[in-house]
Amino acid sequence: MATTQIPQWIFSCLDQYANCACGIRIVKKMGKEGLIKALEAKGYPCELEIIADPKDTSEFPEDGTYILTLKSTGRKNKSTEDDK
What we know:
disordered C terminus
């Protein structure tokens, strides 16, 4: 797995919206599986969807939209648990 660190804003978006448009750079640096595994290790089980022109058959479409979506929105948030 690549040693690239996942930016904090990705975690913030996932916490707030349960999805995040992460962009091509982080996906290319870490690889699709590397990014998914790194997020899962941090407690964020996600799916990656790449939306692109069907004619673009490259692995990382330049004009694509890279969306991370939490598999479950029932993720345990420490601050929510502390409030109870």
